[in-house]
Fold:
Amino acid sequence: MIQMNWQKFFNIKLSLIFFLSSLISYSQNLTELQNKYPDESEIALEVSEHYFISLNKNNEIEVKSNSVEDYLLLKNTSAGVSINESLVFSELISVTAFEAYTIGNEAEKFKKTPVKIIVDKPYNSSSVFDSDTKLKVFTFSNLSQGTRKVLKHNLDFKDPMLLHRFNFTAGIPSVSRKIVLTVDKSIEIGYKIFNDTDHLVKLTTEENKKNTTYTFVINDAPIFRNEPKTAGRSYELPHLHFWISSYTIKGEKTPVFGKVEGLYKYYSDFIKNVNKTEDPALKKFTLELVKDAKTNDEKMEKIFKFAQEQIKYVAFESGYEGFIPRNASLVFERKFGDCKDMSSIMTEMAKYAEVPNVNLTWIGTRELPYSYEELPTPAVDNHMIATYERNGEIIFLDATDSQVPFGLPSEFIQGKEALISNGDLFKIVKVPTLTADQNKYEDVYSYVLNGNKIEGKGKLKTNGLTRSYYLNVMSDISKNRKKYIEGILERGNDKLNVVSFTENNIQDKTLPYEIDYIFENDNYVVHAGDETYLNMFLHKPLIDLIFDEERKTTADLDRLQNFEFKTAFKIPENTKVTYVPENVTFEDAFIKYKINFNKTANEILLNYTIENKKTYIKPSEVKSWNESLKKLKSNLNETIVIKKA
Structure:
């Protein structure tokens, strides 16, 4: 009761004091802030969240929060200013109160005007089939220089184990960003601040008889913009995760999170009642599917391909449906499901096929940088797969990637830790990162010169994750497939025309995806007097990945990859080649490449290979990475010179 009165006081009395005092403070500081951030249109004066963590009368943990977002417009222009602010809510996180309004500038005498347009919208995701996760969108109007947008809201967390992280930075400047945790003394919390090597986040702690209050605040937070190929916001942005470590009732302490054992116990409750009853129809189908398989590997490959090809992937984000796998019988009946459902049906079919050691497995995708040791909470994971262990080797079965071959992990879980369930036991294993040779792009082609145009034919082969990447994208393309094929071949200039093409091995994932093609490039060569200049490097991989050296976030190149090209150019009649570039071999920590020219009487052969040796490029590595690519680019810009005989 005391806590509820305090929250009411916080919502009404303190907000009034905040409103009156801030009018004077920020109207005086507008010019100062404009001078400090001359290129910015908007600034966050305050972003704060206050959590109240307590035990209710039923000795259940309750988590509620109050939040304030206060933004000031530094310019009259609408460029760079968001007229919409929003908050996320769902069945597990409900909105109990909200208020949104603008505060006019000094000329408008700081008039407070409530927002009138408030709309609930689905939390858009093209792959989400059923979702109770929604956005409450507030549209602010009459915005001009000196106007403030204020949004306040209260949330009630139905599951105290599923708590938000707090970001101490954003894409706009922030005067102050703060999170406060007021925790009942019967509850112990844990927390960890990530990516704060400069100790910008300041922590203060206060205690009274009932609560301990932790306040984390950062002033003048660094700005992190969206950058191309970003691995994920959590790699560099300072942020806080916090969790319930334990709670004590009548002297009895109950551990919750803080160790992987606690996380596994929490997860186990989600799967303990899954697939308890045998499904005769699914069992019959499974036994028919694997009847000709001679080994467990062959059985699992058939089961995996069935899940990939016959179970349509759709995501569910509705209450605990986002965490609990559905029974395999329902997935089989529906022929659609999310990652958990695909894992459920694969593990159940494995039982029917009498394949041992096939288990449900939790994992975080590559956008999450955490290990289980450093963050043993549900925030470490956002995905589920199945794993198949035989002879000490783990096969990772991620059927959400409809194109990945059996035996290979999907691209977005490479290098990540996986938590494998096995009854009361669990195992943590690391997913391997495929080698560049496993993800090969091999192109063999020949061509001739016809005026300003080059004309030729070739064959492209791709395997591993390179193969699955192209075919996953292609599966969404029903029209203008030719244009996408031209994008894959990516040769010469933007005048590339693929005259004809044939695709091979689309269905058989054990074979390379192949494209046989005939092509032409118009206006490709340069004539100067009696000389013709021809760049034989029609394909120049990686060189578009030169990044801004002020980059602040880690770049993710998705996969290691080997590009191999074997090309032949027929020397035109009545001409002679007067210059051929030198052969080159180069290797450093980031890339390696080899270029070899061979001139014969009738043609010039060019063979070259290029390979990236890293999937992640950290901000501290960008300069060196760029230098490597600039060397590569310089070599790939070399031309041969042809002169009339």
Remarks:
- Confidence is low (pLDDT under 50) at residues 1-21, 126-130.
- DSSP finds nine helices and 38 strands in the chain.
- The CA atoms of residues 388 and 394 lie 6 Å apart.
